Amino acid sequence: MAQKQLSAAERNMMRQDALRRQREMQRASRIKPAPPPPPPEPPRQEPPRIPQTGKAADNPLEALLGSLDQDRLILLALLFVIWREGGDTKLLAALAYVLL
């Protein structure tokens, strides 16, 4: 198959287009991209609660209850009330599992 010969005007137009694209690429390479955002801070972890020395250390029950949060205390109280009333063992086991 014979190749089509380009006229001088077509070759000149192709050269001009190539030069224009080259300038655009050089201009784009000079523009510095924005710096990447800083990495997110890792979540802060609270230090474990240490029982205070003094009265809490003398009474083990106070030391245990002092380290429990409010939700666990409520679950523990509910577990105790249901157990005293002779509640269902599956319910007691489920509440105990939630406490873990």
Assign the structural class, choosing from mainly alpha, mainly beta, alpha/beta, alpha+beta, or little secondary structure: mainly alpha
How far from one another are the termini? 81 Å
Order of helices and strands: HHHHH
Radius of gyration (Å) = 38 Å
How large is the count of helical segments? 5
Helix fraction bin = 55-70%
Mean pLDDT comes to 79
> What can be said about the biggest beta sheet?
none
- Provide the low-confidence segments as ranges: none
* Strand percent estimate: under 5%
Basic shape: rod-shaped
DSSP, total strands: 0
Write the layout of secondary structure elements.
Blueprint: H1 8-30, H2 55-58, H3 60-66, H4 70-84, H5 89-99
Helix pairs in contact: 4-5
Summarize the structure.
With about 100 residues, the chain is mostly helical.
Keywords:
100 residues; 5 helices; mainly alpha
Structure report:
With 100 residues, the protein is an all-alpha fold. Helix content is 60%, strand content 0%. It is built from five helices and no strands. Helix 4 packs antiparallel against helix 5. The termini are far apart. The model has no long low-confidence stretch (mean pLDDT 79).
